[in-house]
């Protein structure tokens, strides 16, 4: 099994380093690989906080990335649900992952986070 980290995904998406971006492209476009949910959360964080990419663009870009036939993840529907909400809700991506587990897997989420509780209650 091949697992890619956030740096590989970021170099691929940003194409900001001649050598590293080419190597990342070769990895991502030529072989099956697994992306842990934690790695995608780091990618979201770095794109938003370090590169100041808009949430809607992060959402679209990562939803497209997850459609790559080489990409394998543990909870595709949870990730898709979280990314879809990410573009419109001002919650951290990890909170939106919890929302995704709630919507997709009917998980009961226990939290003191008021914004997340409102979303979980459909408000």
Question: Can you put this structure into words, describing what you see?
Answer:
With 123 residues, the chain is mainly alpha-helical. 64% of the residues lie in helices and 3% in strands. The protein has one domain. It is built from seven helices and two strands, in the order ααβααβααα. A two-stranded parallel sheet has the order 1-2.
SSE map:
Blueprint: H1 6-14, H2 18-30, E1 33-34, H3 37-50, H4 55-66, E2 71-72, H5 76-86, H6 93-105, H7 114-120
Parallel strand pairs: 1-2
Keywords, please?
two-stranded parallel sheet, 7 helices, mainly alpha, 2 strands, 3% strand, 123 residues
Strand arrangement, largest sheet? 1-2
Instruction: State the shape.
Output: globular
Structural class: mainly alpha
Overall average residue pLDDT: 96
Low-confidence stretches: none
* Total domain units: 1
The multimeric state of the shown protein is single chain
């Amino acid at each position: 099994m091949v697992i890619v980290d956030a740096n590989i995904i970021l170099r691929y998406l940003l194409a900001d380093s001649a050598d590293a971006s080419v190597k990342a492209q070769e990895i991502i476009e030529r072989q099956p690989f697994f992306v842990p949910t934690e790695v995608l959360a780091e990618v979201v964080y770095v794109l938003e906080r370090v590169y100041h990419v808009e949430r809607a663009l992060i959402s679209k870009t990562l939803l497209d990335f997850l459609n790559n036939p080489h990409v394998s993840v543990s909870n595709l529907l949870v990730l898709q649900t979280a990314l879809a909400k990410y573009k419109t809700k001002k919650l951290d991506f990890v909170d939106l992952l919890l929302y995704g587990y709630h919507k997709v897997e009917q998980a009961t989420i226990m939290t003191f986070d008021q914004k997340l509780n409102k979303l979980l209650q459909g408000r």
